[in-house]
Design goal:
The protein has helices at residues 21-36, 42-51, 53-62, 71-86, 93-100, 112-120, 133-143, 153-156, 163-173, 187-195, 230-236; strands at 9-12, 124-129, 151-152, 180-184, 199-203, 225-227. By secondary structure, it is of the alpha/beta class. Helix 2 packs across helix 4 (71-86), helix 4 (71-86) packs across helix 5 (93-100) and helix 6 (112-120) packs parallel to helix 11 (230-236).
């Protein structure tokens, strides 16, 4: 393990690293649809929705002249596309809003809250997520995530892995990049953070994508810490 004595803050990828988006959304939409008498393949919807995630952010990057667009808006656009493709009918505007805000109601992995609570005793802890501020704030209230503050791509008008997100987080905290550790279950997120001078910790979430998981089963980079879960991460950092 590297010398991490200078680290003062931990910033976290959220979707997949802190919360189980896939199981949460499928269960939420299944319960909701039964109460509304609406039929749909919610597993296909959720998997398709996540499949459009990166492309929707890339579209924002390709068209800076249109301005930054928050993730809630991108999620709604993707949802409308998928509902039409999957033939889900009878949805009102309020229904589409409910589904979009499902991303605000995600449940944490079983080790997340306890691990974050331990880490908070020694470090500043915050999300560093592509989710917008309202989404991340509502999620924290729903899931009991004990963040010290909310840091979102929205604050920097750039999505990860743009350098503005990682370096912007350090700047807002008044810290050098090397005093901030990025925690993620995604090797590509850590690769970008490391490139811009942040310390890195990998925590595997091998069931994030369910049967569709094809990568990130294990660490593939030279990260400062590799831990099984947030409890082990806290152990490694002396919390």
């Amino acid at each position: 393990m590297s010398d991490l004595s200078a680290v003062k803050a931990l910033v976290f990828d959220v979707f997949g690293t802190v919360v189980d988006w896939r199981t949460s959304l499928i269960a939420d939409f299944t319960r909701w649809s039964e109460s509304r008498g609406i039929k749909g393949d919610w597993t296909a919807l959720v998997d398709g929705w996540r499949g459009l995630y990166v492309g929707s952010m890339d579209e924002v990057r390709r068209h800076p002249e249109r301005g930054y667009v928050i993730l809630d808006v991108l999620h709604r656009r993707s949802l409308e596309q998928l509902v039409a493709q999957l033939g889900i009918v009878g949805l009102t505007d309020a229904d589409l809003d409910y589904l979009t805000r499902g991303w605000h109601r995600l449940h944490p992995w079983s080790d997340s809250v306890a691990g974050l609570t331990r880490l908070k005793r020694k470090f500043i802890i915050a999300p560093l997520s592509n989710g917008n501020v309202a989404l991340l704030t509502n999620m924290a209230k729903f899931a009991g995530l004990p963040w010290d503050l909310i840091m979102s791509a929205e604050l920097f008008a750039h999505y990860k892995p743009d350098p503005e997100t990682y370096l912007g987080a350090a700047r807002l905290l008044g810290l050098a990049p090397g005093e901030v550790m990025m925690v993620a279950a995604h090797n590509n997120d850590l690769q970008a953070a490391q490139r811009y001078g942040l310390k890195t910790a990998f925590v595997a979430r091998p069931t994030e994508y369910g049967p569709l998981q094809s990568r990130d089963f294990e660490a593939t980079g030279t990260w400062d810490i590799v831990a099984k879960d947030f409890g082990r991460l806290a152990d490694s950092l002396g919390c």
